[in-house]
């Protein structure tokens, strides 16, 4: 310590000063105080013992009267001598010190006691006057912090029995408490002795070296300290990061050589005008017309799981049952003598996929009562995983009544009272069974007001996003009628045709074709339950043959399953079909199912032009559909696109024999009466170039109107204003975002290459979840990935 400026071997320092100096050394070694602060506090302590310290401000020296005569006559300090920064202090290599501590530990290792819970508790078991530093021969966490120029350097410990150095970097201390204790004084002028835990541990170490018994609690603490010192020195923080990881952390820059769109700015694509025909003023008016003038005409045939027709609902029965339900809802449901429902209230429809008849009665009964049906799935258990999200939908829609059938209600979980339980996350509901015996027949003079289609909400269809949230998509009466008219014109539906429907009749294309549009043209729908398709994948083809159906509504999975089951079936014929609508034709993998299905069934009467893929979304409803040539549609096309180009959002035609290509089929022309454009996926909705992939947007009277009760996201999706490169709006009407990624190809055909929900951006390159399935099918088409696997 003499090299710091004071020959301390000539001065007998009090124990309190030695202790405070040790604390100060500890704080400096751990970096709790700066070098300047260390020198200042050290000089203030030594000024009480050594009057003249080189380089110390006189204001920091205390009066000589508080010191003894021997202390006041101490010689002047020596000039500090610099030490190499990489030198190890010999104080930390004392073999004698190490052996002494180890001997003390070996002597008292049997006496195990709980370790002190606080640092101060050590002080009550050790003598302050005998404190010496513990052995620190192990490498410290930062040796450089102990080798600063100007610090005290100690001579070998054997030659200094009375003065012990005390830097201990292995023990963490508080600079605030240590500094305060080292500078506080008693009224008598002597420094206050408030040692830190480092001093307490060092004291027992010195006692162990001279053979003095040490408290076992302190021995445990020393053992913990030695175990800590034995650990390998931690490398600097920067050594934890390898070069590869540093490269990953760098902000990647776009490849200057990546392909960029080169075409001209696209123009808004206009669909054919909606024909001026004698359309009914509303869908309910069409139902009333057919229910009164053609009561015996078949409307809907339901099949059981064996494929047998269990019931055929006629247009007359649909009209009369819907009237009965509407009268019951408006007049027989009361709450404290007040009607339970009022016009515009939302009502949940809870029906299984095997009962399309009662669902159709409930749907049109709500419309006649001016209520808003909200079709949902049947909850399977009390804690059904999807029930919470459906509960949020019901709560946000303010639903208080649920319609179901007697058979369905019996299958729902019950409480001890026999009532249907309140499902997790659902609002309290009143359940109404709508089987015939539970309804009241209206008086002969009672007729509901069948109004023209207006802006009011007709029904709410649920949509589940990729995050799992469920929202309600509201469709107005005007949009409902316009959608039915556009589908009738695009598909060429005529009166009394037969449609085989394999899809879910509660939502999407299964609802739009099989429940709504069918009413407009008095179509007979044959509904194939999903359970029948699982048992007999060929059942829909068999029903096409039996009923001589002119149209069929399927998905690519149904076409694939029928391929696997068709072996040995020689008596099937598809020659009656003029329209085979592929509802998921926008998926990239649908083309393989269409090609394989045509290859097998063309010999059984299926014509190539019959296959009509379509694209749709819950927000825009039907976006585009391929028309047969007899309806004026152009020849079908397919595009062989470079996957690399698609990942950069550009269209590049490639060779079909390559593996790095994606082959997609067109989904036909835009719907009648609609305007379509493609906008950039991110940022301001600028129009894309003709060879650029973007999000398809639709302006039409036949789209949905809002997310019910969610104004924020409604504006972003249903009120988009596409602009040109110069920032000018392309139309004075807002567009609806479809969530479909694609482009407009030759003959104004629409191509879809993915969905916004499945978009994955990795290193400025776009990939789509659908591409994974498409790639697997391209390698082995017959090993189809289905049923959610």
Helical stretch count?
22
User: What percent of residues adopt helix (DSSP H or I)?
Assistant: 25-40%
SSE-based structural type: alpha/beta
Major beta sheet, specifics? 9 strands, mixed
Low-confidence parts: 1-7, 52-93, 113-201, 203-216, 784-789
Summarize the structure.
This protein has 22 helices and 27 strands.
Report on the structure:
It is a single chain. This protein is α/β, with parallel strands linked by helices. The longest helix has 17 residues, at 315-331. It is globular. Residues 1-7, 52-93, 113-201, 203-216 and 784-789 have low confidence and may be disordered. Residues 86-98 have a biased composition (Basic and acidic residues).
SSE diagram, text form:
Elements: H1 15-29, H2 35-46, H3 69-72, H4 95-108, H5 175-183, H6 197-209, H7 216-230, H8 243-249, E1 269-270, H9 283-293, E2 298-303, E3 309-314, H10 315-331, E4 334-335, E5 338-339, E6 346-350, H11 356-368, E7 372-376, H12 387-397, E8 401-404, H13 406-410, E9 430-433, E10 457-464, E11 470-476, H14 477-491, E12 498-501, H15 508-520, E13 524-527, H16 530-535, H17 539-547, E14 551-554, H18 556-565, E15 579-582, H19 590-601, E16 611-617, E17 621-625, E18 638-642, H20 643-647, E19 661-665, E20 669-670, E21 675-679, E22 694-699, E23 706-707, H21 711-718, E24 736-744, E25 750-755, E26 759-762, E27 765-768, H22 769-779
Parallel strand pairs: 2-13, 6-7, 6-8, 8-9, 12-13, 12-14, 14-15, 15-16
Antiparallel strand pairs: 1-21, 2-3, 4-5, 10-11, 11-23, 16-17, 17-20, 18-19, 21-22, 22-24, 24-25, 26-27
């Amino acid at each position: 310590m003499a090299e710091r400026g004071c020959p301390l071997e000539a001065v007998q320092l009090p124990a309190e000063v030695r202790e405070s100096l040790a604390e100060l050394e500890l704080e400096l070694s751990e970096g709790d105080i700066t070098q300047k602060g260390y020198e200042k506090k050290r000089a203030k302590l030594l000024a009480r013992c050594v009057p003249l310290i080189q380089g110390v401000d006189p204001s920091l020296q205390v009066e000589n009267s508080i010191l003894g005569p021997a202390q006041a006559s101490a010689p002047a300090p020596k000039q500090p001598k610099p030490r190499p920064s990489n030198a190890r202090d010999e104080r930390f290599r004392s073999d004698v010190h190490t052996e002494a501590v180890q001997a003390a530990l070996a002597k008292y290792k049997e006496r195990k006691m709980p370790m002190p819970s606080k640092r101060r508790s050590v002080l009550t078991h050790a003598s302050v006057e005998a404190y010496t530093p513990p052995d620190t021969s192990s490498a410290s966490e930062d040796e450089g912090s102990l080798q600063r120029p100007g610090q005290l350097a100690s001579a070998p410990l054997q030659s200094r029995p009375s003065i012990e150095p005390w830097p201990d970097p292995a023990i963490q201390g508080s600079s605030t408490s240590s500094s305060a204790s080292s500078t506080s004084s008693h009224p008598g002028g002597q420094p206050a002795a408030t040692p830190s835990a480092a001093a307490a541990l060092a004291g027992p170490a010195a006692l162990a070296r001279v053979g003095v018994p040490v408290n076992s609690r302190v021995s445990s603490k020393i053992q913990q300290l030695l175990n800590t010192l034995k650990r390998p020195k931690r490398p600097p923080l920067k050594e934890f990061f390898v070069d590869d990881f540093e490269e990953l952390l760098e902000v990647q820059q776009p490849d200057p050589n990546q392909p960029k769109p080169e075409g001209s700015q696209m123009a808004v694509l206009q669909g054919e005008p909606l024909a001026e025909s004698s359309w009914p003023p509303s869908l309910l008016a069409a139902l009333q017309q057919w229910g009164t003038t053609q009561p015996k005409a078949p409307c809907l045939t339901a099949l059981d799981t064996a494929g047998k027709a269990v019931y055929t609902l006629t247009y007359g029965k649909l009209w009369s049952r819907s009237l009965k339900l509407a009268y019951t809802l408006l007049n027989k449901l009361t709450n404290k003598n007040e009607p339970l429902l009022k016009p515009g209230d939302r009502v949940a429809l809870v029906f299984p996929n095997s009962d399309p008849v009662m669902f159709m009665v409930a749907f049109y009964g709500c419309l006649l009562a001016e209520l808003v049906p909200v079709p949902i799935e049947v909850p399977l258990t009390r804690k059904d995983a999807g029930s919470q999200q459906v509960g949020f939908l019901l709560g946000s829609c303010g639903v208080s009544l649920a319609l179901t059938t007697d058979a369905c209600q019996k299958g729902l979980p019950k409480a001890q009272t026999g009532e249907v339980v309140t499902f997790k996350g659902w609002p309290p509901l009143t359940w109404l069974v709508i089987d015939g015996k539970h309804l009241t027949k209206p008086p002969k003079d009672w007729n509901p007001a069948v109004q023209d289609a207006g802006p009011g909400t007709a029904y709410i269809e649920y949509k589940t996003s990729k995050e799992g949230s469920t929202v309600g998509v509201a469709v107005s009466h005007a949009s409902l009628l316009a959608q039915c008219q556009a589908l009738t014109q695009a598909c060429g539906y005529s009166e009394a045709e037969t449609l085989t429907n394999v899809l879910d009749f509660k939502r999407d294309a299964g609802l739009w074709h099989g429940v709504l549009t069918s009413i407009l043209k008095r179509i007979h729908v044959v509904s194939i339950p999903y359970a029948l398709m699982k048992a007999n994948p060929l059942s829909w083809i068999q029903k096409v043959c039996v009923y001589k159906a002119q149209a069929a509504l399927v998905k690519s999975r149904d076409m694939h399953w029928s391929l696997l089951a068709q072996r040995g079936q020689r008596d099937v014929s598809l020659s009656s079909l003029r329209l085979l609508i592929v509802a998921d034709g926008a998926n990239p993998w649908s083309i393989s199912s269409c090609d394989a299905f045509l290859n097998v069934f063309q010999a059984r009467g299926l014509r190539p032009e019959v296959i009509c893929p379509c694209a749709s979304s819950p927000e825009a409803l039907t976006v585009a559909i391929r028309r047969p040539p007899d309806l004026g549609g152009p020849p079908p096309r397919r595009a062989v696109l470079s996957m690399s180009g698609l990942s950069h959002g550009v269209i590049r035609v490639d060779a079909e024999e390559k593996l790095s290509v994606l082959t997609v089929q067109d989904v036909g022309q835009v719907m009648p009466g609609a305007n379509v454009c493609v906008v950039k996926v991110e940022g301001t909705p600028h129009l894309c170039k003709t060879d650029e992939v973007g999000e398809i947007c639709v302006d039409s009277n036949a789209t949905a109107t809002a997310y019910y009760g969610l104004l924020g996201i409604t504006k972003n999706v249903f009120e988009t204003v596409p602009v040109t490169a110069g920032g000018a709006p392309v139309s004075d009407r807002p567009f609806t975002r479809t969530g479909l990624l694609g482009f407009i190809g030759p003959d104004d055909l629409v191509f879809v290459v993915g969905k916004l929900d499945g978009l994955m951006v990795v290193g400025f390159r776009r990939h789509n979840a659908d591409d994974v399935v498409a790639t697997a099918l391209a390698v082995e088409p017959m090993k189809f990935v289905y049923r959610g696997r």
